[in-house]
Amino acid sequence: MASTKKLVGSAASRRALTDYDWDAALSNERVVAKGILWKRKGLFWRERVFLLTSAPRLVYYDASKKVPERKGCVEWPADTPPKIRRRSPSRFDVCVAGRDYHLAAKGDGDDSADAWITRLSRVFSGDLSPKVGRQGWIYKRGGGGTSSAYRRRYAILRGNQLFYYRRPPAQQAVSPQGVVRVLSATVAPEDMPGKAAFTMATDSGRTFYVCVETAEERAAWLAVLPEADPCS
Q1: Residue pair 232/226 in contact by the 8 Å Cβ criterion
Q2: 68, 177, 208, 217: which could form a disulfide with 200 (CB 3.0–4.6 Å)?
Q3: If you write DSSP's letter for every residue of 71-140 in order, what string do you get?
Q4: Average pLDDT over residues 26-35
Q5: What is the pTM of this model?
Q6: What is the pLDDT of residues 182-199, one digit of tens each?
């Protein structure tokens, strides 16, 4: 990129920002911020419309099409935010586990790299993070191992992500044992003798089996999990 300060965005991208119904393109998320960024892939930079959502995550689209085409997303667990590396007033990196995303902005005002870094920092600090939907003890088995044992875990639902821990996290940061992105999972009650159970089948092919103490607890979890089938 010879001069990112001269970037203004194509007419198609600018039009899509104002005319396209971005909230309708998302499910169970709201758009926190949006704008045009250039994303580097190899030696080339591609213009994309970026959405910062309440999930939280970044979703990016190719707006050169009549209907903007989703090209990918940058996701991270709410408990492990990515690192942001400022390179210049118009360039910054978003670093998640195993990958760095190199991005360029127009370089001034609300469209500058500094403005995007500020927005992302607000999400990471909790100002825009999803609130806790439900939390409590569960018994979990799954989703990929051969063990049939159920292990007691403390679960916290934040937005579209279900985190589970060995014990309730204290005020200091504690890494979860794992996370299930329930927005992409099929959640349904499970018939198991003597157990109040439900399953979470993710789009990665893993299925998590969950038991709680009572049928009332199960109904309460299913009531708050996105896309969950009701108890019969």
Answers
A1: no
A2: 208
A3: EEEEE--TTSPPEEEEEETTEEEEEETTEEEEEE--SSGGGSHHHHHHHHHHHHHTSSSPPEEEEEEEEE
A4: 81
A5: 0.59
A6: 776 788 888 777 789 998
